[in-house]
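*** Residues and shapes ***
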Amino acid sequence: MAGSSSRRSGFSKKQQYSVFTGYLLAALGALLGLALLALSLWQPAALQPLRGGANEVVTPVGEATATVRAGRQSTWESIKGFWNAGSQNAALREEVEIARIRLAEAEAIEAENRRLKALLDLTANEAEPVATTRLVGSSASSARRFAYIGVGQSDGVEVGMPVHSERGVIGRVLETARSSSRILLLTDTESVLPVRRAKDQTVAFAEGRGDGLLRIRLINLGLNPLEVGDVFVTSGAGGYYRPGVAVAILSEKTPDGGIARLIAEPSATNYVVVEPIYEPLAVEASAVRARDELTEEELRD
């Protein structure tokens, strides 16, 4: 005797009617689809209301999807903008600082030209650089601050020549070898550089402190006219450095001047330019006077 699983659907009239009804509805749906297809090919305008109704049903769904997609894109763009804001702000601050330095140098050069034209009827011209080289390294942990460059006597470099980067003064040549040189940085405790405020003729000395900063010491004591943010440039006095090159920005005011930070930070400098001494005769005369004074002191002793 066969099991119940072998019974066919034909033994149940209800199941037979259900199957028949399904086939009938499928056949009617196919016929309706063919009829609509034929009607759309024969009379396209006849189905315009039906298409319009379908579009009205689908449009809100499409608008909601588009709104969600646009919101997701806007949120993603906001996150990306927030993520990149830090680097963009840093780059903008760097550009603004460089622009400020260039403006201060331009003002200093303009003031220097006016002074020279009024006194000597001359114009200052920049000398041709002796060499352009990479700053090999610099000391940063001791009171003595030196740097080293990859050019020396064979390249025409001599003791006393000023060295600067695209931002400002680095220091001057202290010792030379055949293919390398040692630089006395402005922040060294033995470094003293005549400077002046870029916007006027307020003169001072920039003395190295050995901690990466400079001490600005005014020559004319009295009421301190300096302000935080003042830019100082070389004055040309002493004969080593040509006037108008950026040196430092005042960060703190003191009774006799202030504390300033370097514009051309050696640790952030890759390439430097070695220039000839601005006034060789003045430097030589100063060296002769220093030797004479030393000789007189030795004779007195």
Q: What stands out?
A: The chain has three helices and twelve strands. The longest helix spans residues 48-119. Residues 127 and 276 are 7 Å apart (CA to CA). The radius of gyration is 42 Å.
